[in-house]
Amino acid sequence: TLAEQDRVGAAKILAERFGGLWGLEAVRARLLEVTRTIVAEGHEDRVWFAVRETIASSPAPDPDLVQLEIDLRPQGTADMIRTYVFNPNYKFHNQAGPAGKAESAKAYEMARTLGENAAADPVALEPVAAELIRTRETQAFCFGEGYASKSGDLEADWVRLTRILAAADKYADPSLLRGFLRGVQSRAPEKIGPWLDAAVEVPGVSIHLAALQITAGVDAAGIARWVRLIEEDRIPLSSFMMRGMPLEGLDAETIRPFVMALAKALNGKLIALDVLSMHLHGVPDAQISEGFRRLGRELLASFTFDRRAETMVDYLLSQLVETCLV
Q1: What is the 3-state secondary structure (H, E, C) of 183-225?
Q2: Is the CB of residue 74 less than 8 Å from the CB of residue 82?
Q3: How far is CA 21 from the centre of its chain?
Q4: In Å, what is the CA distance from 185 to each residue of 108, 115, 122, 181, 228?
Q5: Which of 55, 75, 122, 133 is the most buried (most CB within 10 A)?
Q6: Is 237 or 314 the better-scoring residue by pLDDT?
Q7: Positive or negative, the Cα torsion across 151, 152, 158, 163?
Q8: Closest Cα to residue 253, out of 217, 223, 222, 291?
Q9: For position 243, what pLDDT does the model report?
Q10: Element (H or E) spanning 77, and its range?
Q11: Percent of the chain residues topping a pLDDT of 70
Q12: Could you tell me if 80 and 114 are in contact, meaning their C-beta atoms sit under 8 angstroms apart?
């Protein structure tokens, strides 16, 4: 048997080179043998994906290769979670075949179902949740959504998840909690506001409140949470730097404290400009209220103009000038 470290290293190399090696007919029998040896002591999702990709790119897949793919499929809850939750669903999107989108959708639903099943044993979920929060590009969102849909105690599970997020570093991914919030929206939406109010007080969670609030929906209370965190310098301003911040349905007076709090924060003016410009982008001139025009003028008045502005900044400023001054 292979030592664990050797097995993991061998699996990585095999996954990277499987397709190319399979193209060499003389080594196929040996390749099948080596592959089965490497995965004999544990499921390797990378190798399974490589075999799937090789089948997808083959006009007439070899029956032995097809059987290998069947044998490599994840079995048992732990392997299923490792494969379907810790990998993004685009890995299941077979670009070479017509059923690619269907495969991707099936992977999404599988991750959601695994979340539903995990709700039966929330304590056992804790180490999985801790690793998910430290991992990028996963299906943690749909896993969390499924988990919330079957949770027997939403309050206790939310506390458990926020505790895990708070213990992680600032680079943690809150997608699991965002998915949980989405699931709660269809069961007990009245719980979310108080949860987010409490999250403001927890440093390891409050730094993620831009993403969490957007998932829950941005309203006046959410704006107030953001303003407080910005003014107290307890949230990365970069977390608001996303094209098309979802502020639809909010009037200028509601949005104003958020935009101006950004403008007054250190290095926040350009983010405030981005937020307001993108919010007004594409809106017909006749539909822009006087309140938004006043807010645009107030933001423009806070800028000190010089010749060093970047091209994108110039563009956003010119758009705001045309909207609010012309």
Answers
A1: HHHCCCHHHHHHHHHHHCCCHHHHCCHHHHHHHHCCCHHHHHH
A2: yes
A3: 34
A4: 19, 16, 20, 6, 24
A5: 133
A6: 237
A7: negative
A8: 291
A9: 56
A10: helix 76-84
A11: 93
A12: yes
Q: Which of the four pLDDT bands, split at 50, 70 and 90, describes residue 36?
A: very high
Q: How far apart are the first and last CA of the chain?
A: 75
Distance of CA 304 to the CA centre of its chain: 36
AA identity, residue 85: V
Report the alpha-carbon distance of residue 280 to residue 66 in Å, rounded.
53
**DSSP letters along 211-278, please?**
HHHHHH---HHHHHHHHHHHHTT-S-GGGG--TT---TT--HHHHHHHHHHHHHSTT-HHHHHHHHHH
Instruction: Report how far residue 317's alpha carbon sits from residue 297's, in angstroms, rounded to the nearest whole number.
Output: 11
**162-186 tens-digit pLDDT:** 999 999 988 899 999 999 999 999 9
pLDDT at position 129 over 80: yes
Q: Which two three-digit tokens encode residue 172? A: 């943690």
User: Which segment of 15-24, 102-111, 142-151, 209-218 scores lowest on mean pLDDT?
Assistant: 102-111
DSSP-assigned letters across all residues of 8-61? HHHHHHHHHHHHHHHT-GGGHHHHHHHHHHHHTTS--HHHHHHHHHHHHT-SS-
> Quick check: helix, strand or coil at residue 300?
helix
Measured CA to CA, the distance from residue 193 to residue 201 in angstroms comes to 13
Burial (CB < 10 A; 0-12, 13-18, 19+), residue 14, is buried
Cβ-count burial of 164 within 10 angstroms (0-12 exposed, 13-18 middle, 19+ buried)? Answer: buried
Q: Which residue has the higher pLDDT, 309 or 269?
A: 269
User: CA angle, corner 108, sides to 107 and 111, nearest 5?
Assistant: 85
Tokens of 129: 């949740």
